[in-house]
Amino acid sequence: MQRVAEQVFEDIPEGLRRHVDGVAILIEEFAEAQTLHDMEIDDPFNLLGLYHGISIDHKSVLDAPSDVDRIFLYRRPLLDLWAAGEDTLEDIIKNVLIHEIGHHFGLSDDDMHRLEDEA
Rounded to two decimals, what is the model's pTM? Predict the structure, then answer.
């Protein structure tokens, strides 16, 4: 899955990718229990990915970085979605990555849904 995620990331347009330099893409089986609790998600299969960091609209060149920004992809929920549907695993991962990159830019879920509806 790491290889697929890296390939999908390389296929994202350069104009978008260059603003994500230094963001780590990590694969985990599921989100941690505390993360699910904090997000009020009861079923760990309902979270495909998560951006963890400070969005670029809140960063300052004067701030000392306290941690690396990360995008988590959750393997089991992604595989279950793939097995249950018609989309390729690459397409699913691409959609999740772009969604999480949107959070890196400071977009909310509502912002991203609105942009998807307009497209």
Answer: 0.83
Burial class (CB in 10 A: 0-12, 13-18, 19+), 77: buried
Distance of CA 18 to the CA centre of its chain: 16
Residues 115, 2: Cα–Cα separation, whole Å: 28
Q: What is the per-residue pLDDT across 18-33, written as a single tens digit (0 to 9) for each?
A: 778 778 999 999 999 9
CATH code matching the domain that covers 2-118, chosen among 3.30.379.10, 3.30.70.2640, 3.30.2010.20, 3.30.380.10: 3.30.2010.20
Q: Name every residue whose Cβ is closer than 8 Å to that of residue 6 and which is 6 or more positions away in sequence.
A: 25
In this prediction, residues 53-77 reach a mean pLDDT of: 77
Taking only the tens place, the pLDDT of each residue in 83-117 is 999 999 999 999 898 888 888 778 788 887 776 66
